[in-house]
Design a protein that fits this description.
Layout (H helix, E strand, L loop, with lengths): L11 E10 L4 E9 L3 E5 L10 E7 L7 E11 L9 E9 L4 H14 L14 E7 L2 E8 L5 E5 L10 E7 L6 E12 L12 E7 L2 H19 L1
Antiparallel strand pairs: 1-2, 1-4, 2-3, 3-6, 4-5, 5-6, 7-8, 7-10, 8-9, 9-12, 10-11, 11-12
Length: 230
């Protein structure tokens, strides 16, 4: 099976000052996942509805002037992830022409510095088959964003709730090798598949594994990288 990246642009977590342009202009500071194609702003009070076009000025670290962008609200999420706030995802439609190179350079600089709150474990953008058992039911799903810390399962998550413990079996795409261990459901995404083509329903899980199992996972990840390079 080919290894496929779900996101086309790398993202970095950073503080983003956003001035919302319109009838009631206001300046707010958000923590957000920022890329060259969009931003996810953590907030419990969205300032627009899904599908709305928005005019924003982004005040990024190290910028001499605000970056003006036109965007579309692609999704709004409720607080359904442990330890994280709700928020809104904005897809960038256009960056002001004279600022486009500056914008790209600023994002690259943030990526080089890794922003704030970087993930504890690096992730592989991949798609492999995963078997998971919840209660007495065994299901299969495709896994995205695999790391030593956890993964994202593409599934409708019927019957799953935050905190559920699953038995996970990872199936190597080009060999009979398997990795098996327990995991906890820490993130559920559902009910918004009609909002954006890039939105994927699924479940994020955190591995509950021992030190020896983590070493086994490291070996498994290395074998996936070898397949990807091949």
């Amino acid at each position: 099976m080919d290894i496929i990246e779900r996101r086309t642009k790398p993202r970095v977590e950073t503080k983003v000052k956003v001035k919302v342009l319109g009838e009631e202009e206001r300046l707010e500071t958000f923590t957000g996942n920022l890329s060259k194609s969009g931003v996810f702003l953590q907030t419990q009070e969205p300032f627009s509805k899904v599908g709305d076009k928005v005019q924003l000025q982004l005040i990024l670290p190290h910028a001499n002037e605000p970056i003006r962008v036109t965007g579309k609200v692609a999704r709004i999420t409720s607080p359904n992830r442990m330890g994280e706030s709700s928020g809104m995802g904005i897809e960038f439609l256009r960056v002001e022409a004279r600022q486009s190179k500056t914008f790209d350079r600023l994002i690259d600089r943030l990526l080089d510095a890794r922003g704030i709150g970087s993930r504890k474990y690096p992730r592989i953008k991949t798609q492999i088959v995963v078997e998971f058992k919840s209660k007495d039911e065994v299901q299969k799903a495709i896994a995205d964003d695999l790391s030593k810390g956890g993964l994202f399962l593409r599934t409708q998550a019927d019957g799953l709730v935050l905190g559920d413990t699953l038995r996970i079996v990872l199936l190597h795409p080009s060999s009979r090798r398997k990795f098996e261990g327990d995991a906890e459901v820490v993130h559920i995404r559902k009910g918004e598949s009609n909002i954006s083509k890039s939105f994927v329903e699924g479940v994020g899980v955190k591995f509950l594994i021992s030190a020896s199992q983590r070493n086994e996972m490291t070996s498994f990840l290395k074998s996936l990288l070898a397949v990807r390079r091949a």
